[in-house]
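#struct-help
A.M.: can someone run this one for me? Single chain, 114 residues.
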Amino acid sequence: VQLVESGGGLVQPGGSLRLSCEASGFHFSAYTMSWYRQAPGKERELVARILNVSGSKQYADFVKGRFTISRDDAKNTVYLQMNNLQPEDTAMYYCFRPGRRDFWGQGTQVTVSS
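D.P.: on it. Structure tokens below:
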């Protein structure tokens, strides 16, 4: 199993980024996929989750209305569109696949600063 994130970077407050997580080594469409983040000195926290089959989406309160999670099962990829980014969104963002064994990506850094 591999999860490879991309799309992070430095952005000014109010800006946008689109993160991608390309998955391989498992039947992607059969799994719920999630994005987590971890800021320095803080615990890793759930940002958003998208269920398989139904495509139902769940968001942390701190990103509702600003972030959108989506998936393309044909491309084995899950996305996180992040709008109106704020300095408190600065963190390493991780892709996560739960299951009998959990898998994490290596992370992509998002820095929001003027």
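A.M.: thanks! The chain has a mean pLDDT of 96.
D.P.: also worth noting: The chain is about 0% helix and 50% strand.
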